[in-house]
Amino acid sequence: MKHLMGSALILVSAAGFGSMAIFAHTAYADGVDTASLLAIRFVLAAIVLTVWVRIKGIAMPTGKKLRGYIVMGCIYAATSFGYFQALNYASSATVALLLYTFPIMVTIASAILGLDRFGPAEWIALTGIFVGMVLLLGTGVQATLPGIVLALGAAVLYSGYILLGSRLGGDTHPLAATSTVLLSAGSIYLLMALTKGIHLPHSMSGWVSVSLIALFGSILGIMTFVAGLKLVGPTLAAILSTLEPVVTVILGVSFLGEALGGYALLGGGLILAASIGLAMNRIWRQRQLAT
Questions:
Q1: 205 contact partners, CB below 8 Å, separation of at least 6
Q2: pTM above 0.90, yes or no
Q3: Stretch 142-160: mean pLDDT, rounded?
């Protein structure tokens, strides 16, 4: 029952994060720019989550941990900018699938830094992702070069975010850590928006889209992920989170009229399969070490 509940929470989180690209397209069409959208998203999410942390009496990080999470917030801010800016140049499905090359990037970086080994399973996953990207990007996909570069850049930055987060770890409560990250990212985007001029939605539909990104795509997504993570553990959570780009693809086709050809779908499937394979290989390796 515990694993079932945890899995359900992770799937809700993946659906929340996966929906953000769709709402972003609506917000952009209503006059909102990337900096303003992310300022609203992060500030609203940071306020709600920080208040929740205070109500629960959860201790916030201090000292080196605090500085580390502030740096993570800066990296996450840059990651989000790359992802949401890429949506101006590529379909939401393409951006979401390219972002999900990050697991192999984390694996490669971990091997280079001596944090993990790069074995046959990792080579197979790397080959699968490379072939998947060729199929995805070489079949008339809805994307221009800036969109591809921004999406892959976001994947690189997110890999750095994950590696830094794994080094901090320790006794900091996940919600307190996330609150600090959001406050850091929110401060950056609020300053950006105020400096260059904030562009608010022109209509109610725009405000609804921005609010859903902050509430459903950020606050609910984060809190359900943290709750589910406690019940199922990080590896299963990582596997279930691969539903996120699937949600984006389905919503993009259903509501934005986006289309992926057969080869592009095969390429996206290879990228996701490689990510799932990496996570499952890690489960097997951990079990081997435990026996």
A1: 26, 30
A2: no
A3: 92
